[in-house]
Amino acid sequence: MAVYTEVSDEDVAAFVAEYDIGRVLALKGIAEGVENTNYLLVTEAGQFILTLYEKRVQAEDLPFFLSLMEHLSQGGLACPLPLHGRDGRALRELRGRPAAVVTFLRGLSPRKPHVGHCAGVGQVLAQLHRAGDGFTLSRTNDLSVAGWRDLLDKTADRADSVRPGLAEALSAEVEHLAREWPDTLSSGVIHADLFPDNVLFEGDRVSGVIDFYFACTDAFAYDLAICLNAWCFEADRQFNVTKARQLLRGYRQVRPLPAAEIAALPLLARGAALRFLLTRLYDWLYTPPDAFVRRKDPLEYWDKLRFHRAVASSGEYGLDP
Amino acid sequence: MAVYTEVSDEDVAAFVAEYDIGRVLALKGIAEGVENTNYLLVTEAGQFILTLYEKRVQAEDLPFFLSLMEHLSQGGLACPLPLHGRDGRALRELRGRPAAVVTFLRGLSPRKPHVGHCAGVGQVLAQLHRAGDGFTLSRTNDLSVAGWRDLLDKTADRADSVRPGLAEALSAEVEHLAREWPDTLSSGVIHADLFPDNVLFEGDRVSGVIDFYFACTDAFAYDLAICLNAWCFEADRQFNVTKARQLLRGYRQVRPLPAAEIAALPLLARGAALRFLLTRLYDWLYTPPDAFVRRKDPLEYWDKLRFHRAVASSGEYGLDP
């Protein structure tokens, strides 16, 4: 939630001159996106988002992200479409950082997600999975099992300061999941971070999906498991089975869920909870107190993880027979 | 530089329904304005700024600020125009905070102000002073002499931690300025914070003036003295007389400068430097390190103050004869 890199009007005028979108009329820093610097860019051709990629995004991943948005957009998904400059390039440099201009999407991300949003989220997630078909680039999910081990190592010595016994519990959890983690599920491009921040709505209708900077190649059902964590718990950390039912029903309207994916859901949801628990824990322990980032409570995901661990079968997620 | 108050889509839809601007199409938090929460609001009628006033702005001052913008806008100044709801009110409430919707202005605030900007700044400042004519409300400048004494008291015991001897030097400075401060200069509505952040440009042409939340009733020449501090020093804190010449020339093209105002400029500029020195010092000492605000170095204004103290006559500001 910050503008990390300030750009001068001369910088941005020269940058925009590389595109066919007319003169710059306005530029406003946007207080969204903890990873990158985003500006609302108004030109004679309309509204766009100008993104400067900060160091947390690996520069070598950017061609994957930008090509993916283009592929998905051409496949009919409502997502930002990167603009190509007159030289054909979508990725260039601004103030020493990789930078791109993408189309601006209408809609509001829900601050208070409710059950009416969930069917649309399920549908658009399945559309994304289908639209990713034929995309030739791939990117390893570096926040899957190997990444968890790495985060575990980096947080082990201080995890107990957050909750006594947490380090050992997490270690056991990673080992269990590493043993059980499925590797034969149907895979392809997944969003991997489809939280309410990243879905735009007009009323209860999804108008767009944004922020593809965790997208990678992994099991489709894992993406669904992330959404169960992101959309189907209340602020008091109670699971809302009505939301989950709507989410799963919406998904299956667009892409059928094979039996193997259904059976794997509790384990995948447990892994997804662990993934956000570990990254939040890392950020909690390593974010300097003067950083311009609001730290999120890692223990929210400890509670979610425990919920999934107690789920005996996918029917508990409200899955229609 | 933050969004202090999050609003839900339901909140904003209900709020916007009070105006005649169609449905909400998008809402983005803007990373500008350290005082208030600002959103870019896109509706079927176009782009607007939605502002939620946070606690640093006194609620009882809001009618002054909003009426002033309306008066100045009707007087031909390019500034935000507050919208009236169907009930006639410009000021209402959102999430428990006073809130208003104003028009969106095109243009970019210069990150690196250069000499080409300065004539336009002088002109628009004089236009603002003229457009304020006939405005019937008034507001005391609470950051003038009495306010300085108050800030001095609050910072005295810790000022020397910023620079040895600073507390005593500031005390002597306030006493000197209090004795010499003129009270017979031509007065009216002043902006009182016309820094580069608050002026929008299209190229070198001013397209708008924003952020009227320090506006008050005071000497016009004091506003000019603030601009000398805000626009005419380089990053290395050297005074740039070419910039000042352009600024003053631009101002005098629109509003003549009486001899008394010219003569008072060095003292007023010294007072203006002291005002920003004291508020920055206060923020420096009292901003918690985990606040989402970047503190600004108060000593920048110590150097500026010393420059103005050494000015023997207004000719040194590049004033044309």
Brief characterization of the structure:
With 321 residues, chain A is of the alpha+beta class.
List its salient traits.
homodimer, alpha+beta, Phosphorylase Kinase, domain 1, Aminoglycoside 3'-phosphotransferase, Chain: A, domain 2, two-stranded antiparallel ribbon, 9 helices, 9 strands, 40% helix
What do these coordinates show?
The structure is a homodimer of 321-residue chains. With 321 residues, chain A is α+β, with helices and mostly antiparallel strands. Chain A has two domains: 9-103, 2-Layer Sandwich (Phosphorylase Kinase, domain 1), CATH 3.30.200.20; 115-317, Alpha-Beta Complex (Aminoglycoside 3'-phosphotransferase, Chain: A, domain 2). Helix content of chain A is 40%, strand content 15%. Chain A contains nine helices and nine strands. In chain A, the strands form three sheets. The first copy, chain A, has a five-stranded antiparallel beta sheet with strand order 1-2-3-5-4, with helices on one face. In chain A, strands 6-9 form a two-stranded antiparallel ribbon. In chain A, strand 4 (92-94) and strand 5 form a beta hairpin. In chain A, helix 3 packs parallel to helix 7, helix 4 packs antiparallel against helix 5 and helix 8 packs antiparallel against helix 9. Chain A is globular and about 60 Å long. At the A-B interface, helix 1, strand 1 and strand 7 of A face helix 1, strand 1 and strand 7 of B.
